[in-house]
Amino acid sequence: MNAIAQAEPSATVAGSAPATPIVRTRGIHKVYGGTVHALKDINLEFKRGELTSLLGPSGCGKTTLLKIIAGLLEPTEGEVEVNGKPVTGPGPERAFVFQDFALMPWATVLRNAAFGLELQGVNRSEREERARHYVNEVGLSGFEDKYPHELSGGMRQRVGLARALAVDADVLLMDEPFSAVDEQTRRKFQEDLIHLRERENKTFILVTHSIEEAVYLSDRIVLLSPRPGRVGQVIDPEIERKGDPDAIRRAPEYLDLTDEIWRGLREYVE
Amino acid sequence: MYIRGIYVPQFVALLFWVVVWEIVGQFELLMLFPPFSEVVVAIGDVVTSPSFVDAAALTAYCYLAGLFLAVVVGISLGLLMGLVPAADKLLNMWINIFLSAPLSALVPVIMILFGMGQPTVIVTVFMFAVWIIALDARAGVQHVSTSLKEMALSFGASRTQRLKIILLSALPEILAGIRLGVIRGVKGVVIGQLLVSIIGVGALFSLYSQNFLMGHFWALILILFAFALSLAELIGRLEQRVEYYAGARH
To answer: Are A188 and A239 in contact (CB under 8 A)?
Structure first.
């Protein structure tokens, strides 16, 4: 069964333990250049330890919302709170994973993964040790001394993920992290992310335009409607993710919900 | 290059023209064109003469000083224009004008300002090399990927650290600018000295042409060409190493 709730801040799914919100947005508006209304009145709560997807067609402002939460963009109105504190810019409790990986081409995998720690002033041996751990965690051990151009797209994004994990932030903000890699790599990556969540106790906010990806991965899906971007629907898929990751793609709940969301989004694509 | 499926190395083309030169020279049609063999002999003569050693040292000094200034000022200008849109609006047009203007016409003005000596030659080298370096650095800075800048910001980089990332990202373009500047600088040093014509290689050129030592004259030209090309090649090698790293910029 899928519990479909409207965009009410306190909507929790019956049966799951109530988690406290770690990120909260209040009345976010974003207007570009005085005329383009990208986001309109976004009120959302992201619960600690959950993976929330921001899903919508292109132009719905989902990346804009993620960058506002990251502190990379300022909202025209409204505010974002992380751990109860208002956001004024980027902070160490949030780490960003970029769509195009944003690796430094002149630095090795290890140095790229350790870059967040380098900027925090962690000494070399400690940051390399921690980076090594996370490079291993994302499945890239043996590639520490390679340069980004020597890696495939999927491997580069793993470095981006290791960099975000290494700074030990509470919230991982992922901007369409799998859209620049091929389909096989994307599937493997999604499975790995499910396993990673079992080991790392982090809150994930994921921007995606893939309905399947959102349903496959998310505890909660926020559907955004385009121009201006508004919260259309908040969906809590109840899909069992323990066990075989492949089984999820065959589960009736997965298939039904994917279908249902597509029917809802269809009107925007015309 | 392949001719009828047989591999022919590129320098064969050079050799071909050398042979043509030698044959034309042997006919002694023009006094301006001594045979190539005579020029080669003259190279030995020129290189060992004390006036050449002095001229070469002076030329090298003026060239390197002018180029150093051009690199420092050019990269700074490029950075400024790439990062500050107001500065870009103010400077871009002027730099483009200087880039395409016939700078040789300016040398007499520079001569009036800086006198008949080394400073004029240094300034001429600078004027020839600096604009292309500035424009390429500007292009490099403007093409640094937005996400890389956002990445630095989101992981808490300071202003200096962000500037360092921008510089390293723009390095391929900056080096391409320096390579072009190196070549243009050689033009600058020769033209500057020719117009001043009482110092360095310029003085030698006047000396040889006034005494109809055409072999020596051509020898000096060959030496200068070789010098400019080897320098450009050297920077090109360095560039390839960096391009290699920056080849996959995303």
So the answer is: no
Which residues of chain A make contact with B246, given a CB cutoff of 8 A?
105-106
Domain segments of chain A as ranges: 21-93+171-270, 103-168
Q: Tell me, what's the pLDDT at A115?
A: 92
Lowest-pLDDT range of A203-212, B4-13, B40-49: B4-13
CB contact under 8 A, B245 and A99: no
What's the rounded mean pLDDT across residues B211-221? 86
Which member of B151, B169, B171 has the closest CB to residue A98?
B151
A95's torsion region: left (phi>0), alpha (psi -120 to 50) or beta? Answer: beta
Query: What tokens were used for B65?
Result: 């000083």
Residue of B145, B152, B247 with shortest CB distance to A149: B247
Of A64, A166, A159, nearest to B250 (Cα)?
A: A159
Interface test with A, best of B148, B149, B151, B164 (most A CBs within 10 A): B151
Q: Which of the following CATH numbers is that of domain B55-245: 1.10.472.10, 3.40.50.2300, 2.30.42.10, 1.10.3720.10?
A: 1.10.3720.10
Q: Is the CB of B147 less than 8 angstroms away from the CB of A100?
A: yes
Q: Is the peptide bond before A237 cis (omega within 30 degrees of 0)?
A: no
The residue of chain B nearest to residue A164, with distances taken between CA atoms, is B155
Report d(CA B22, CA B16) in Å as an integer: 10
Cross-strand partners of B2: B7
Crossing angle between the packed helical segments B159-196 and B50-83, to the nearest 10 degrees: 140
Q: How far apart are CA A82 and CA A93, in angstroms?
A: 8
Reported CATH class of domain A21-93+171-270: alpha beta
Query: Which position has the higher pLDDT, A213 or B197?
Result: A213
| ipTM value | 0.83
